[in-house]
Amino acid sequence: MTALFALATSLLWGLADFGGGLLTRRMPALTVVVASQSLAVVVLGTVVVATSGWHEAGPQLWFAVAAGAVGPIAMLSFYKALALGPMGVVSPLGSLGVAVPVGVGLVLGERPGLLQFAGIAVAVVGVLLAGGPEFRGEAVRRQAIALTLLAAFGFGAVMALISEASTSVPGLFLALFVQRVTNVAVGGTALYVSVRRGAPALPEEGGPRTVWLALPALAFVGLADVAANGTYAIAAQQGPVTIAAVLASLYPVVTALAARGVLKERLRAVQAAGAGLALVGTVLLATG
Questions:
Q1: Are 134 and 86 spatial neighbours (Cβ–Cβ below 8 Å)?
Q2: How far does CA 72 lie from the centroid of its chain?
């Protein structure tokens, strides 16, 4: 079950990142973050009411608040990086955040078996290779990498925090709702400050109409990200965090394949080999 939910997480995060990266090429990144998370808040609020999730309120929700405060910073950095650099290069670097929850798991005493340690090593190397040999180059490329590394640390922190925010399914819905409300509050404040400093809140081309037409895509990005956080929390509760975190961090392969299929971004031989190693690592982790 841990492997199943963690792999579902990687699929959902990969598609959400692809959609967020595309949207950020058409409108400001902060607008994408705030709009997508606001739509997710509406849906999650309905779910919490329907499941009476508010009865699960407790001190553990502070983990959700912390995850919600870190999340917008990570998402903003990552969406900007995706808009600047090739998705097939940027996205794999984002998976370096796996070091945070894996480190937490090891500190808490988790000790994967030898085969699983091998799977972790193979999967991480595969994801890095999937980024390709483009770590040097023009200033835009370097800026994209710096933003991605910042986002990676934030994503890793969110993974570690959200796995501690609930112990039941209704509680998980409430934790995700609190996380998203915090996301909107932090992101909305940043958007307000940005606008006050002269940055646009709406796309230069099309204005509000562009945002209106993009609502279905924004909703998909927000809900896919929420669902990914939920499936990851379940995976981390069902089995070792070290295994769940590594499997969930295979999402860059999904983003790279989506970019290849939709945007026709070409994968180099080393990137294809990296994707293959990531899959081999997945098999080792799942069977270890």
A1: yes
A2: 11
Nearest to 219 by CA among 41, 14, 56, 87: 41
Amino acid at 234: I
Rounded Cα–Cα distance for residues 159 and 197 (Å): 32
Report the C-alpha gap between 121 and 53 in whole angstroms.
39
Separation between Cα atoms, residue 9 and residue 208, nearest integer Å:
32
Strand ranges (DSSP E) for 74-216? none
Q: List all residues 6 or more positions away from 9 whose beta carbon is below 8 Å from its beta carbon.
A: 228, 231, 232, 235, 247, 248, 251
CA angle, residues 211, 159, 185, in degrees to nearest 5? 40
Task: Please state the φ and ψ torsions of residue 44, each to the nearest 5 degrees.
Answer: -65, -35
Q: What is the pTM of this model?
A: 0.75
Give the distance from CA 283 to its chain's centroid: 22
Calpha distance 70→183 (Å, rounded):
8
Query: What are the distances in angstroms from CA 149 to CA 74, 152, 231?
Result: 9, 5, 24
What distance in Å separates the CA atoms of residue 26 and residue 226, rounded to the nearest whole number?
Answer: 23
Q: What are 162-213's pLDDT values in tens digits?
A: 888 887 888 888 999 999 999 999 989 989 998 988 888 888 788 888 889 9
CB 70 within 8 A of CB 157: yes
